[in-house]
Amino acid sequence: MAISQKIVHLVRRFSDENWGSTENVVRHTSQSLVKHGIATTILSTSALAQTGSDHDCHVSISRFNYFYPSLGLSKAKKNTLDLKGGNPYSFGLFKALMNVSCRIIHCHTLGRLAATARIVSKQRNIPYVVTLHSGLATIPKSEMDQLSGTTKGSLNYGKLLDIVTRPDRVVKDASGIICIGYDEFLSIKKQFPYKPCLYLPNGVDMENFKSPQKNEFRQQYNIDANSKLILCVSRIDTQKNQMLLLDLLNGLNKYEEQNYHLLLIGAISNPTYFDALQHKIDQLKLNYNVTIIPGLAHNSPELVSAYHSADFFILPSIHEPFGIVVLEAWAAGLPVISSRVGGLNKLIENNSSGLFFNPYEKSSLIDTFNQLNRDQSLQNKLIKNGLYQAKTYYSWTNHIQKLLQFYQEVEIWHQSQHTTSLTC
Hints:
six-stranded parallel β-sheet; Rossmann fold; alpha/beta; 18 helices
């Protein structure tokens, strides 16, 4: 029987209203595979979306009911888990994996959903691949404690299911591992020296960001046309550290003659942090100098217009496995300032394609911004080099070519492992 060419992408959620870098990668990867003649489907839970099926550019998307195995979990806490860090089970998704005709299962999530893919892989002798999107090795303990604290006060019966499904073996038993962060890739390669492992940074749609959309963005959002606009595109979350940008803005508007405006765009994955941001904005009397847009659709022309309306792009994250928004800023021709953490260390060359600062020191950001703000030749250099980096190394064409080669390597390795087990 001929093997189907279909690739199944498994993701925890796929919601237009709460879009993130993982969804962005899954969408572009799936559409690029279709362009290469490879049928692709996306399977996900219905978290922050509706159960059912639809299509996006010839890619089928199916969302299934799910549950968190914790008795007494409140609706508010469930929503918090949906936004960030949820670890659900889905029997409907498991059934779909057992029945879909496919060549490879590509997991863009870990935990219990990936554990069901692991079981299906063993039952059907289909290789599965995992992409490590979250940079687990670099998440601060305080944030891990906050995530685990969401289920406190409820009775966790998931441990009983976990004994059967073994989420702890997802990475170990995978036929291939993809890392978007270089440090994580080195660590994984050391742990699994004989398994197919790939360092595969995210990509950017250069065509989408190369020219401004016909949208009077500043006028639409009442942003002074003469102000210098600082843009940050990222989830509203403690990880993204937007609070530090308020300190920068407060100092600039106190001591500089030029008017500055801060634009924050991103889905709210931590409502408590969002409330704290709002409180600080009120406290510092920055209401007329800060615009927060809680997420724009992935295909929104407003997002591209926001980039082209800005003067600077700053990413102040305290940990970041990659930083796909940096690619978007480069593609739109913006000078980039970034915290020196995680995958950003590999992505950005300091004083060439961007400037680094210490996200734990307010003075570090202020000094770095002032350096860039007062040096037009430095701005021009960062813009030129960033655009070159994005175009040369991070196009989706390059991304897919490497992924297709990796899929072939995974299939060969998986088959050799299966053959070996039969002869033992």
